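Project channel, design review

CF: Before we commit to the Pseudoduganella namucuonensis constructs, I'd like one complete example in the thread so the newer folks can see what an input/output pair looks like. Taking Glycosyl hydrolases family 28.
RD: sounds good, go ahead.
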Amino acid sequence: MHARWMRAAAGGLLALAMSVAGAKDYSVEAYGAKADGTTLNTKSIQSAIDAAAKDGGTVVFKQGTYLSGSIFVKSGVTLRIDKGVTLLGSQRLEDYPVLPTRIAGIEMRWPAALVNVYEQKKAAIEGEGTIDGDGKVFWDSYWTLRKQYEPRGLRWASDYDAQRPRLIQVFNSSDVKVGGGLLLRRSGFWTLHICYSIDVTIDGVVIRNNEGGLGPSTDGIDIDSSKRILVQNADIDVNDDALCMKAGRDSDGQRVARTTEDVVIRDSIVREAAAGVTFGSETAGGFRNIEVYNITVLKKTPVGILFKSAHTRGGFGENLRIHDITMTDVPVVLRVTMNWNPSYSYAEIPKDIKDYPPYWKVLATPVPKEKGMARFKDVRIWNIKATGATTAFEVDGYKEAPLERFSLSKLDIQAKKGGYIYDSKDWQFTDVKLALSTPVDLENATSVRGLPAGTSVVRARQAKEDPTKKSFEEQDKT
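CF: and here is what came back for Glycosyl hydrolases family 28:
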């Protein structure tokens, strides 16, 4: 299936390239844009895009820095940001119009991104230039609000109330390409968000968000309830999840019920992040037929492979394939937690608060336990090389819904601790090399087969450090 849709995607991109090969260039300067870094060029750039949309043209820039608010790339248009060109995001929130979207797993109105492909077809954002969100002002506003909210039991609300623009949003669109060597930096929130979209290729992006501070929730690439997505040749340095699959949060995500499926992520490097490859925590719509391979994860990233959900999320993961991953000095090789970050994951409105936005009620809508447990099964992980790790496994599912049929082969892991595998069923280890100072603790791990002699022990569940606390402290460092 992957081969068929990848050939189809390649054919579509070739057709797009051929269709625009002879298209006219539309220079933003002709519409009044100034490359001085201080003139607000939103209207001028948008005028050039609108003109190019009439014949499928390409919008181009002379070298320089162009200050702008939200711009919207239209169907048939290529936004080309060449080397020496910087598109600089405005620091005024009013320059980002509020539109319907999905953010952090729920549908709500939210500021548009700096660059948007919003309900369009056959569009591209490419070049060797820079898209710079200049996001520190938005990071600071978030921290100010969160410090006010946490003592009131509103940690979960701070991410939604502190509205911050993403850098690039591809929303409800198809046949979109982003890449060509683009440098994406200092995003106010998530860097590249692909939501409700089909046939999107991300090829050749460099993401640098840890410049001028460490912005909270500055994810690298988020693939959210989308299909037939290819991500390759990414180089990522962020302060949250680097390569992340999402599919909706809690009751709202279950209402939407859109799966993330037919995804390939490959040939990329994660230099710093909260985790290298992540599924969740927005799992409600489920994940299906996803392959991740040829990924390097370096030591400033606390977790290599992460599955995270919560007992109100629901959803599933099946036919997930992760292989040929190299980790160097990454503390935790594989973490699976179904009770991730409770203060964020579980929304409860204090009784003394009577006036609150409608989305608070959405977030606080109860989810029955049976619908709230995410179910992961048929996961294959192979060819993993990890050196300098602290812990090999931190795996904790549900007794009522164990993590089923995980196949792990050709693992070569050096770690101080084996860690633990809890609430799992039918795990098969094959051809594994584990150099561990302590064994792997097993509890309610039914039919776990193939671990080398002496590397595991069955005993009562041990008290353990909350893994969500560690990873979230890493995410929140300033």
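RD: helpful, thanks. The chain has one domain: 70-79+91-475.
CF: The chain has a mean pLDDT of 93.
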